[in-house]
Amino acid sequence: MSSDHRAIEALIFRYAQLVDDGDLDGLGELLAEAVFTGSGAPLRGRDEIAGMFRRTVIIHPDGTPRTQHVVSNLVVEVADDRASAAARSYVTVFQALPDVPLRPIAAGRYADRFVRRDDGWRFAARTVDIRLVGDVGRHLRVDRA
Question: Residue limits of the SnoaL-like domain (predicted)?
Fold first, then answer.
């Protein structure tokens, strides 16, 4: 596996760690050059993306969302010129709380694009497609209307 593949994998795994650590500003920084598309309109840049996470992710008293985002089935494709890359993967989100046992709460797919800068690879776009939804009421502030 090439160093490009490893660097891109590290970015994908870093995203999961930042969410699970409750580091929402860190997520904004990681995605600062990216377009992020989830269930709403596409978001661009550090402030829009970090703001969306702050508005939607429930942070518990321990400073985290009490989740584990497990990324699997990862495929990375680096362009021949090594200036861009694409990746796709699956994500399963688990959550446990003092009064709720460990359980899966969501599963879906990530589709990512990356660009190479002088100092390394960066996210250019992330699309989150959640296909299976369980009880996310203790993880996300969602409009149930």
Answer: 3-127
* Mean pLDDT computed over 116-133: 98
- Identify the domain containing residue 101 by its residue range: 3-133
Residue 129 lies in a domain: yes
Q: How many domains are there within the chain?
A: 1
Choose among 80, 115, 109: nearest CA to 7. 115
Cβ neighbours of 92 (radius 10 Å): 15
Residue 54 lies in a domain: yes
DSSP class of 124? E
Q: What is the mean pLDDT of residues 16-42?
A: 97
pLDDT band at 1 (very low <50, low <70, confident <90, very high): confident
